Here is the input.
Amino acid sequence: MSQVEILSVTKESEIADFINLPWKIYADKPNWVPPLKKAVRRLLDPNRHPFWKFSERVLFLAKRGSRTVGRIAGILDNNFNSFHNEDMGAWGFFECENDLSTARALFEAVEQWTRSKGLSFMRGPFNPSTNYDVGLLVEGFQYPPSIMMPYNPPYYLQLVESYGFLKEKDLLAVILERNSKKTDRIDRLVRRISRNKNVTIRQADKKNFDSEMALIREIYNAAWSRNWGFVPMTDEEMVEIGKEMIRIADTDIILFVYYEGEPVGVIVALPDIGPLLKRLNGKIGLLGILKFLLYKHEIRGARALAMGFKKSHQGLGLPLLAFNHLIKVWENKVFDYVEIGWNLEDNYDIIKIELEFGARIYKRYRIFRKDLTV
Here is the structure.
């Protein structure tokens, strides 16, 4: 085996190698869902994606001769560090052959870059922050990833841990299937809270999607501000995400909760378009539009990717009402399941609610940390 060489990505051909590598890594992994290459390119572009207006990144490729065998990004998220008063260097977009020396060389390159920025610890994987794809899959490899969730081979855990990264936090995904049954207790609670005439729930308005996204951002930033790993989303980031969401959104499963006429909570769910993405295999084009029309019936699930309620209105049981409303909506659709998450592993209250509605934990993702010694 030839010596591994680490290259800092600067050329267009190297960007292409960085984006294309997963198609080699996952060639024999049937559960992997290919991303759209155009979307990945935009996300990585400092001149186009708003995340990089307050962040820095470096991309590295691992080469063995002419073969690309690994990739990684080093990320400095200034908004995150400012919000949490930390000096974190993040890593993400990690893909690698099953070889410890290749993984070590990639992590060493990011560590050197992190040290050069004067940062004291590394955390990841963030792709590129907790507002995007996050975490390393450690349980649930038998299932394909839901929309906007990562996937990786089981051997990645050994590659990461071999470099000295330790678990910092696990993220859980739960699944609610059509035959799931909620407990009698949760049913009684929902009926009791439903008597509160101050509460109303409405679905999103696709004709005014920009303003709806602004409202989502307002509630999200207020509701999640004390959560581990949270970083406020900027207006420009939310606009960017909105542009992606509106293409696939089913506004029936984006719900706003009002109390006495004031917006206080939100659930954002999206159709799980993984089956269609597998058909597209990274590209849209004219054939992509045809494939959408031919195979959209294969979209059989959804993912609830965000749920939050303003601190001023927590303790009123509003998540139970909103969650129950979501279930009623999706039961009238073609969906066979809804994935809920991610959930912080120590967010016991919300996980208990989800399990009492009949959901079950079926995937676990991990965030790692490594402190940098002098």
